What does this fold into?
Amino acid sequence: MVQPLARPDLSDLTLRVLSAAVLMPLAAAAIWWGGWYFGAMVILIGGAIGWEWSALCQTSAWLRGLTVLTLILSSILALSGMLQETFACAALGALLIAVFARIDRLEASALLPIGVIYVSLALLSIVWLRSMPETGLVAVFWVVSLVIATDVGAYFFGRLIGGPKLAPRISPAKTWSGLAGGVGCAACAGVLVAIAVDGGNIVLIAVLSGVLAVVAQIGDLIESVVKRHFGVKDAGNLIPGHGGVLDRLDGFLTVAPVTGLMTWIAGGSPLRWQ
It folds into this structure.
């Protein structure tokens, strides 16, 4: 059984900060420059999450390779603007994975293909948002800033204030105070982005950012359910102090599709809503 997370010591916090100080500028540069830089980042993320998700599901080596390949191909198709083909690739890959996982009598035979669809949808959403003329760059930075703000706020306020647990059976370290801190920090981050780009209704953007912070926490809890099911603390160890890529991007996997859906329904970026 997964044990509750211990209060981090100074060395753990320092490692987290140093890793973030290296990775965040690289990610920001890739998003800013777009093109092949952004594409390479998305493909690497897709492959890394595919590897970690299939490792969590304890698959065979070749089935893990099929999972990684499906997410990489889906990422490439999405970056090429082939949206229908992206859906088809993800669906076909998930179907094949489900069939072979059943043949292999994999315990997580349903969870593995569901993960492929789940991750593919998030990658497609962030690529589509970035491709939007005029507002795409800002929309992606908004998503990134509010998810990071949610993580930071939840981490520090949860440990500073403590109090009742948010979901003790799923993630014993999470508290309601951490959720509140994450929502508040995300709202502030959203407002700062809106002010910087002369966005729309500031109050509305603050509210939307807070709602998306809750969505990000739901993504975090979804991953926690999976990790608890398999009795592991982290999805991987690629990022010192943070665990795996999936551990850092779990909030993005839910926020990106929701943001994409809001943008599609309204016909424009939420940052421009009045």
Remarks:
- Residues 34-131 form one domain.
- The first strand starts at residue 165 and ends at 167.
- Confidence is low (pLDDT under 50) at residues 1-10.
- The beta strands are 165-167, 171-175.
